[in-house]
Amino acid sequence: MNARKLIVMDLDGTLLNEEGIVTQKTKKYLGKLKKEGYVIAIATGRILKSALIATDGAEFANYIVADAGAAVYKMQADNWEEVDADLISRKIAEEIISEFDDEKFRYIDLCSKDYIVRNIHKITHISAGFWKNDFVKEYQKIFTKKYPELDIKIMQDSFDDVQWLELFNKGVEKYSGINKVAQMENIKNENIIAFGDGLNDIDMIEKCGIGVAMKNALIDVKEKANFITDKTNLEDGIIDFLQ
Question: What's the start-to-end Cα distance of the chain, in Å?
Answer without folding.
Answer: 16
